[in-house]
From TrEMBL:
Residues 35-89 form the HTH-like domain. Signal peptide: none annotated. This is HTH-like domain-containing protein. Coiled coil: none annotated. It comes from Candidatus Tisiphia endosymbiont of Sergentomyia squamirostris.
């Protein structure tokens, strides 16, 4: 897209035409260092034994192993490796057994026309109580 040896347009002009900055053009992505590979290998080994370790506990584990790693770095490693701590999540699909089940009144009705069936929903009944 950007030609460095263009006769008439400089790199600055070409970047402006494309709507990007020169730093984007000159950016060279850095690879993963040996230190990061060691840390990710230890995270992988520890995660295999303790999949319930979150970012904070894994950061403390790595610090105990002698690595100077914070929780945000561990979070980035987890994202790179596609890991997520295993823990029980909220189960929102269980209903209250004491709650009354209301019948569906339109169950046997064939609705074939627009405006054939109307419904209303009462979200909030204002009783005049204001703060």
């Amino acid at each position: 897209m950007i030609e460095p040896n263009h006769n008439k347009l400089t790199i600055i002009q070409q970047c402006k035409l494309l709507g990007s900055s020169r730093s984007t053009y000159y950016y060279q992505p850095t690879g993963i260092s040996e230190q990061e590979l060691k840390i990710m290998a230890i995270i992988d080994e520890s995660y295999t034994m303790h999949p319930y370790y979150g970012m904070r506990r894994m950061a403390k584990y790595l610090q105990a192993q002698g690595f100077s790693v914070g929780r945000k770095a561990v979070r980035r490693y987890y994202q790179i490796m596609g890991l997520e701590a295993v823990y029980s999540k909220m189960n929102l699909s269980k209903r209250n057994q004491a709650h009354k089940i209301y019948p569906y009144l339109l169950k046997g009705l064939d609705i074939v026309l627009p405006n054939h069936v109307w419904s209303a929903d009462i979200l909030l009944v204002n009783e005049g109580l204001q703060r």
